[in-house]
């Protein structure tokens, strides 16, 4: 095992560990947070920290596993592409879910301290 492969392996395992930690923290947040919108934030953390980061780690592990031959580059490339799509699409999906729940009034916004979007709607600055 070359030194570069060793470094890629260590970084890959560290990223997988970070992803597992993010999944655990996001799961606790889903149970403890008070309303839909804050829980959606925890779900987005699970999607980004708990999925994006370990996919990058697995891609690095695939790059360091020399026994795969040239297939390792395809595995790593597919993992990197999937991670980039996840990084782009997960926040967009969460935003659209939150916007739909807010405008349809399907989710109760309690406890509510400040609702800046409601103020902008009253002023006519935001259209539904």
Explain what the structure shows.
By secondary structure, this protein is an all-alpha fold. The chain is built from four helices and no strands. It has one domain. Helix 2 runs antiparallel to helix 3.
Please summarize what this structure is.
The chain has 128 residues and is mainly α.
Give a count of the beta strands, DSSP E runs of length 2 or more: 0
User: What is the strand content?
Assistant: under 5%
Q: What proportion of the residues is helical, as a percent range?
A: over 70%
**Alpha-carbon Rg, integer:** 20 Å
GO molecular function: sodium:proton antiporter activity
Keywords: Membrane, Transmembrane, Transmembrane helix
Protein name: Cation:proton antiporter
Pfam families: PhaG_MnhG_YufB
Layout of helices and strands:
Elements: H1 3-32, H2 36-64, H3 71-104, H4 116-123
Helix pairs in contact: 1-2, 2-3
Name the features.
128 residues; mainly alpha; 4 helices; 79% helix; 0% strand
């Amino acid at each position: 095992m070359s030194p570069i492969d060793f470094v890629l392996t260590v970084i890959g395992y560290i990223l997988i560990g970070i992803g597992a930690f993010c999944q655990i923290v996001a799961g606790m947040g889903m149970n403890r947070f008070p309303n839909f919108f804050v829980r959606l934030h925890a779900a987005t953390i699970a999607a980004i920290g708990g999925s994006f980061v370990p996919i990058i780690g697995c891609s690095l592990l695939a790059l360091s596993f020399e026994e795969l031959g040239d297939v390792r580059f395809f595995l790593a490339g597919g993992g990197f592409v999937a991670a980039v799509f996840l990084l782009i699409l997960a926040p967009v999906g969460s935003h659209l879910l939150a916007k739909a729940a807010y405008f349809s009034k399907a989710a109760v916004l309690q406890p509510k301290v400040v609702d800046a979007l409601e103020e902008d709607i009253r002023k006519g600055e935001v259209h539904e």
